[in-house]
Amino acid sequence: MDTNNDDNSPVLLLVGSSGGHLAQLLALRPWYERWRRCWVTFDTPEAVSLLAGEDLVPAHHPTTRNVPNLLRNARLAWRVLRVRRVAAVVTTGAGVAVPFVVLARLRRIPTVYIEVYDRIDTATLTARLCRPFLSAMLVQWDEQRRQYPEATVVGTLL
């Protein structure tokens, strides 16, 4: 993590596990490319390649039901949110998102969750955990509003 951040302009924090979660965030490129941004994802060869030239903060994995890594990522979220001037946190999940969303919301930083496109009939665990801390819930299918009536349908990202 670059803690010697000379540019104190606001940054968009894009948080997501690698693989499909990262792919869905990358699909937002036309929206986020004008913003200064920082990515939080796993330090996998695929993620590093896809985010070449981007500001990348590696998160701890695996996160699925792994309490030690949840705590490590909570410490990481605390450091990132303290050191950087984060304008908003945008995430597609999964587990890595929880500490970033919770701590950002406690710091009054807007938080946006985009439910993944392949969970139409049931809510993801990460969305259920993050939901009380969200400024906005976005979904990709009209059918997902059965689980999230307050959500805004943005259409499919992939």
TrEMBL record:
Biological processes per GO annotation: dolichol-linked oligosaccharide biosynthetic process
InterPro entries, sorted: Oligosacch_biosynth_Alg14
Superkingdom classification of source: Bacteria
TM ranges: 12-32, 86-106
Keywords assigned: Membrane, Transmembrane, Transmembrane helix
Protein name, entry field: Oligosaccharide biosynthesis Alg14-like protein
